[in-house]
Amino acid sequence: MKIVKETVTANAGQSFRLFTPRLRNYFFWHYHPEIELVYVEAVTGIRHVGQHISNYMNSDLVLIGPNIPHLNFDYGVETEYMQIVVQLPENFIGTALEHAPELAGIRQLFHRASRGLAFTGHTKATVGTRLKVMQRQDKFTQLFSLLDIFRLLADSTEAAVLNETDTSVKLFLNDKIRMGTIYEYVQQHYQDTVHVDYVAALVHLSTPAFCRYFKKHTRMTFTDFVNQYRISQARTLLLRDSSISAVSYASGFQNISHFNKLFKKSTGDTPGAFRKKYANNLEP
């Protein structure tokens, strides 16, 4: 569960790596000096980049700068999903990025990615389509397609910065708190009463110190994090043959009205409306 440095190897005969990982329930909290572009389609999943933690729905497009710790985007996904990842060093086209004025926008985009960028709307849909097409192209064409994708991202106004400050790995390596320990506990106990005192003890902090730490590094309370995790699990359970009340209890909510309120606040839909909208997305 500790942070791992991933060794990235470019595809044979190429300056970058293009692949479709399927890690699913493997907790891969990792970092690498390469820039990473991730596109994933899934009913719901967890986005954890640096200090930022949130859930995505339907799809996600994120650009991650060098050495930012992040969790695999298919962690905990139990529905059908598709994921495309591009990893590349900052000098993947030699010194051209540094000196060519035509590439100034992409150079600035990579600088902005040091805090993590999430793209939405038309940008996300267009880049997702182009990444799918890239998989069928020859290597030479893939390089120019990738540059064109970065040009589109550089010009996009549909980008959100995920972290307020630099979240490179140097800020995490000396940290005795391991997010993997917290995830593991919540994953195993979200259906029950989650005890913050016990989690604090697991990571060797007093309860007040743990609460301050968690709020500082995730911009949310531990209770909010647990509820967010429960809602994520509830989205998957709703696509199975279970009543809404059963899903509420199975997700760790003992009060159905409270579950309905949090679910709509998180997704924009009631549990019943969500089930109707996504009933065909469950993987056989």
- CATH hierarchy class name of the largest domain: Mainly Beta
Total count of helical runs of at least 4 residues: 11
How are the strands of the largest sheet arranged?
2-7-4-5-8-9
Biggest sheet: strands, sense, closure? Answer: 6 strands, antiparallel
From the helix content, strand content and strand pairing, which structural class follows?
alpha+beta
Secondary structure: helix percent: 40-55%
Rg over CA atoms = 20 Å
Calculate the terminal CA-CA distance, rounded to whole Å.
29 Å
Strand/helix succession: EEEEEEEHHEHHEHHHHHHH
Query: If you average the pLDDT, what whole number results?
Result: 89
Low confidence ranges: none
Count up the domains.
2
* Shape by Cα distribution: globular
CATH architecture of the largest domain: Sandwich
Into which percentage range does the β-strand content fall?
15-25%
Let me know the number of strands. Answer: 9
The oligomerization state is: single chain
Keyphrases for this structure?
284 residues, Jelly Rolls, Arc Repressor Mutant, subunit A, 3-stranded mixed sheet, 18% strand, globular
Briefly summarize what is shown.
The protein is α+β, with helices and mostly antiparallel strands. The chain is built from 11 helices and 9 strands.
Describe the 3D structure.
The protein has 284 residues and is of the alpha+beta class. The protein folds into two domains: 4-161, Sandwich (Jelly Rolls); 176-278, Arc Repressor Mutant, subunit A (Orthogonal Bundle), CATH 1.10.10.60. Helices cover 41% and strands 18% of the residues. The protein contains eleven helices and nine strands. The protein has helices at 96-99, 104-112, 121-134, 139-155, 179-189, 196-202, 207-218, 222-237, 244-250, 256-267, 271-278, and strands spanning 4-5, 17-19, 29-31, 35-49, 52-64, 70-71, 82-88, 117-119, 159-161. Strands 2-7-4-5-8-9 form a six-stranded antiparallel beta sheet. Strands 1-3-6 form a three-stranded mixed beta sheet, with no helix packed on it.
